[in-house]
Design goal:
214 residues, single chain, 29% helix, alpha/beta
């Protein structure tokens, strides 16, 4: 005669053998696509930038959809310290007071931050079209695809040269076009960057989908 404990074990075994039905295995269908997610990571990363005018973020993803590097535009780290307040953030004409002589771009930082990961054949998501200097690094690192969110100055020399570099290296270039109503999540700035609206919390942004697709 089975004891109470044995009866309970028998019931558990019976439950374990219950077949999985289509109804019981339904999944959530409203999840965001990978490209939406990775551009969202790049946008969130951009918010770490201390640049008062332009915030750019980048995210490197391997063929298995694993993030292997992220970065944002900022000044060089010296002695493992952030030195954003040690360099100029203006675009002054004086040759030593122009930020472009010092700042490390988001794409550069994402490549440097790969922490030993192999980025051959990876995809780079960036909120702004890469300049010619970053494109040189992209080519040399073995990245094979660049997905960008915006390019407001395609005819400017550094971006025209970048396009030639990437195309000559047979790197796939794709523009990431927002879809859906983003007015509540993003605001367009006049400084060549798209950023999350100040009133929106980061988790809220991810919850509401980061509606992008390539």
């Amino acid at each position: 005669m089975a004891t109470g404990g044995e009866e309970q074990d028998i019931r558990h075994e019976a439950d374990d053998e219950t077949p999985i039905t289509p109804e019981s295995s339904k999944t959530r269908t409203s999840g965001i696509e990978w490209d939406q997610y990775f551009m969202g990571v790049a946008l969130i990363s951009a918010q770490r930038s201390k640049d008062p005018k332009t915030q750019v973020g980048a995210c490197i993803v391997n063929p298995k959809n694993r993030i292997v590097g992220v970065g944002y535009n900022g000044m060089p780290d010296i002695d493992i310290k952030h030195n954003d307040d040690k360099f100029p953030w203006d675009k002054q004409t004086h040759y030593t007071k122009n930020k472009h002589l010092y700042v490390c771009h988001a794409e550069m930082n994402a490549i440097v931050n790969k922490m030993g990961a192999d980025i051959q054949g990876c995809t780079l998501y960036t909120t702004k079209y890469p300049c010619n200097e970053c494109s040189k690094l992209i080519i040399q690192s073995g990245i094979k695809k660049v997905v960008f969110l915006e390019n407001k100055e395609p005819d400017r020399d550094i971006y025209a040269a970048s396009r030639i570099l990437l195309q000559t290296a047979n790197i796939v270039i794709k523009e990431h076009t927002p879809k859906g109503d983003l007015s509540g999540l993003y605001e367009e700035s006049n400084t060549n960057t798209t950023k999350i609206s100040p009133g929106k919390n980061v988790h809220s942004c991810f919850r509401r989908s980061m509606l992008f697709q390539v």
